[in-house]
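Hi V.,

Quick status before I head out on leave. The structure for the redesign project is tokenized and pasted below; the design run finished overnight.
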């Protein structure tokens, strides 16, 4: 059965085995997807380093120094994308479950707050967007979709 868009929410957990089908579906739906490779992400510092290297941040802004700096930079960059739907696909998210759970929760909190801000912007000039935050990983915490 083909993946349905209704499977996705503002935060979706997915099994790494479904990654190819998920990326193909996003492309078919015309949803720009930004991938964060989580293989080396173990804590806040390594998350920020990976985000600075892999996510679309404004020119001159690389590795963020705080969660709010990351959120502000992503808002600024993704707000400019000419699409009403966007996806942030964090792969190998299970890597943070071993010793970095508090940092994983902080990262998810920031990303889901950003997703809600896009969905219900405070500025009347801002066009609402849907930002799907997708955590893909291996193991029982990441269901098949």
């Amino acid at each position: 059965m083909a993946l349905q868009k209704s499977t996705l929410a503002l935060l979706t957990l997915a099994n790494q085995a479904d990654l190819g089908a998920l990326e193909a579906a996003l492309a078919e739906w015309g949803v720009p997807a930004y991938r964060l490779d989580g293989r080396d992400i173990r804590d806040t510092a390594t998350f920020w380093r990976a985000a600075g290297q892999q996510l679309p941040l404004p020119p001159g802004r690389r590795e963020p120094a705080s969660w709010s700096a990351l959120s502000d930079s992503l808002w600024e960059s993704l707000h400019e994308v000419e699409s009403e739907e966007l996806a942030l696909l964090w792969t190998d998210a299970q890597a943070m479950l071993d010793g970095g759970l508090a940092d994983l929760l902080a990262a998810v909190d920031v990303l889901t707050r950003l997703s809600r801000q896009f969905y219900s912007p405070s500025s009347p000039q801002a066009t609402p967007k849907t930002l799907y935050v997708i955590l893909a990983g291996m193991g029982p915490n990441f269901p098949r979709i």
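Above is the designed sequence. The chain has one domain: 5-137.

G. will cover questions while I'm gone.

Best,
W.
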